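hey can u check if this looks right to u? its 195 residues, i copy pasted from the old doc so theres a chance i mangled smth
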Amino acid sequence: MAETARRSRNEQGEILTADFLETCRGLLPILDNFGTGFSIVRSDIGGNIDRLAAAQAKDLATYTTLFAIITDEVKGGKQEGKTSDTNALLWLKRATEFILLLLKRLHDDREVALPTAASEVYYQTLNKYHTWYTSAAFTVVLKFVPSRETFFAALGCPGEQMMQDLQTLFDSFEPLLQDIQKFLAEHNLDFQWKV
């Protein structure tokens, strides 16, 4: 996953659609280890990945870079709405940022409990985009995440190698998310409506 994130740019530094989406898909199995309550989150992320992959498939030569999809959608005036590719990228960025920051929190503080870290990161990232109802539901889901030990054991051989792999993932994936956020903000596409 970290290797795919590392090669997610072309020579001009633009984010390559297929590699970026492959990296995002690599995060999906991690969500399975957060418990059954995260199945809706996994489904949303998977749906957004599929939406962007379908957009790319319409014209593989034109849409080799991620922002080309969004730029064309904006030119057509179709960027707003829950079924737009822009909305898919926006929520994919937000959800993967939540996952990445949660893993980073667990990496940086080897003592923090997973439910505590998940709650902290949720309120830092996704909560501001959720209605009261969605926030209440998400808060309940966060109470049922497994222990830190169970979570890391499910990921595979917990230990220093895993922590190094996580650091490599952060180092390669965070800059992609930062570039996406910058692009969305610069083009007034960081929609603040709540779900």
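The chain has nine helices and no strands.
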